[in-house]
Every structure is written in C-alpha cells, then in structure tokens.
Amino acid sequence: TCSLLRQSYPGVHMQTREMNTREQIAPLNEGVLDIGLLRNTPLPDTLNREVILHEPLMAMIPREHRLAQKPVVSLTELAEEPFVFFDPHVGTGLYDDILGLMRRYNLSPTITQEVGEAMTIIGLVAAGLGVSILPASFKRVQMSEMRWVPLAEEDAVSEMWLVWPKHHEQSHAVQRFCQLLLLAARRD
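Structure for LysR family transcriptional regulator, as requested:
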C-alpha cells in the first residue's frame, strides 16, 4: 500500500509515527495525524473508523509446557497459568481487548509480568516465564521455544481499524492511501 501510494504521488512525503492506540486519539482529533491504525478501543464521536483486519487471537505457550501439545486451549486453562501481558499504562488497545474477552468469561488472569511491547511478551513466553495471548498476525514471529495454539472460544478475535477525523478535510493523497489500504485489507 505504501509503495503504491508513492508511485501515485511521488511528490508526497509520508511520515509515519509509532504510537500506541490511546496516544493516537488526541492527535487525530486535533488534525495532527491524518489517519491512524488502532485496535478495539472506545473512540470519541469525532472519529470515523473502518475495520481493516479481523483476526483470531491465539495463545502463546512455552514449548515444554503441558498445554503446548494441545490442538486448542481455552481461556480458562490460560487464566490458571502465570500470564505475561501488557503494562496497563502503555495504552495499547490489545490490553483492553484481551482482558475484556477474559472478563466476558468471568476470568481474571494472574499477570506476573507486565511489559510495553508485544515482542517482549513473545520473548518472555519463549523464555518460559508464562503464557499469553496475541492476535494471529504476530504468529509470523516463530521461536522454537514456544508454540502458537488456537483458542477454543469462537469470539476470541481482534480487529484493527483505520481511523480518521470526521471534521477534517483529507488531502487526495490521504484519501487514496485509505482506499488502497481498504482494498488491500479486503483482498487478505
């Protein structure tokens, strides 16, 4: 999508910023950011959204753990294990997304490690410090010390949204980027 935009608009400079979900909301409202990519999180009425990715959540389990050999695991099984997860102050939408799912099943994991990045979670699970849950798109990260295992619950899914301000006029380049991104999302 980025390369197609550069071909269509060679004179346009695209600047990306790595920000967590909550950090994006104010700059989107203020028009500082043209668009954002966010995971499930409450949005103010001033922002529009379009789903670009709907994917299953998956368990990450150390390879030698008894649950690692199962074809699927339940949230109940995971909630009984030491859980490696996001620091609640980081502001990632996945924090609310995954803990909200567990609350719907009246579960509360025993969080023993809190970190700021998904890659750190993956590394700590591979080191045997606990289990965790992340969206399937992270499954691209393969480590021999851990296994990705599907969750038994059918509603264990996560969405990624394309978000933009309702009341700010978008440039043609931004509109085209959004079109290309939505087309790419529908193909996958």
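The chain has two domains: 2-52+163-187, 53-158.
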